[in-house]
From TrEMBL:
<protein>
    <submittedName>
        <fullName>Glyoxylase-like metal-dependent hydrolase (Beta-lactamase superfamily II)</fullName>
    </submittedName>
</protein>
<dbReference type="GO" id="GO:0016787">
    <property type="term" value="F:hydrolase activity"/>
</dbReference>
<dbReference type="InterPro" id="IPR001279">
    <property type="entry name" value="Metallo-B-lactamas"/>
</dbReference>
<dbReference type="InterPro" id="IPR036866">
    <property type="entry name" value="RibonucZ/Hydroxyglut_hydro"/>
</dbReference>
<keyword id="KW-0378">Hydrolase</keyword>
<feature type="domain" description="Metallo-beta-lactamase">
    <location>
        <begin position="23"/>
        <end position="223"/>
    </location>
</feature>
<dbReference type="InterPro" id="IPR050855">
    <property type="entry name" value="NDM-1-like"/>
</dbReference>
<dbReference type="Pfam" id="PF00753">
    <property type="entry name" value="Lactamase_B"/>
</dbReference>
Amino acid sequence: MQLVEQISPHVWILPAEHKSDRPILAAIVGSRRTLLMDAGNSPAHARLFQEQLQARGVRLPDLLVLTHWHWDHSFGMSEWNLPAVAHQQTVDALRKLVGLDWSALESTLQALTRQGMASAETLQHMQEEYGADRNIQVVVPDLIFAHSLHFDLGDVTCEIRHVGGDHTSDSCFLYVKEDKVLFLGDSLGPSVYGGPRTYTANHFLRLLESIYEYDADLIVESHGQPLALTAFREDLNEWEQLARLVEQFGRDRERIVAGLQGLTQVHDLTQAVDWYMAGLEKKPRNL
Ligand SMILES: [Zn+2]
């Protein structure tokens, strides 16, 4: 079982769990309000965070903000029953999921996979998370923003900002200003639905640039763990180099792979090369 951790003066998180694809959930706790970042992948996931916050005497969330629409970030919403803030595209995507027959999980996900809104992994993870209890209620957020929105929670302020990227076009960053904590959601990941995974060098490099424009001390990817800025830079260095090689050599896979030989190669980037190659065949899309 994951246990809540306080990672900065105002921020508590429930760490990620990979078996059923539970992302990090965060509570940003001000003197007047608590903001919840992401709802969880199920009511059970939401309840786990609620119970642990309560046990630690942390003020429970008053409102909720989503980093993007994906099921693992949004399907816990029914359990929270809070005013929910989301980007317009997040709302549009969730609207498409309301009223689907979730008791017939396999066929519903098959149809969504054809529409580019789920994948084989989604079924596997949802079966793991929900077991036989398919009581899924999709909730559509009520407060909609277009570019960014600021929250004054009392002694601590946050900004949700739409950034897009390959993972999903509605991806947002959440920045906790006073604590210098930057949540990236899944924005740095490749696209995961609608065919093979894809990456686009331009999207990836633009996102990295935006991250480094913040004055963040701690950077948090939803399915990773909080990293200090220096550790994050180190971790991302090869990924950045790879994106630059793709920018330079385009479809010339051999030269890209040859370029990778010169890097330290902490991560195995071979798969990522394929994601970039697939990305080059995809129609370009704006951030
Ligand atoms: Zn996602």
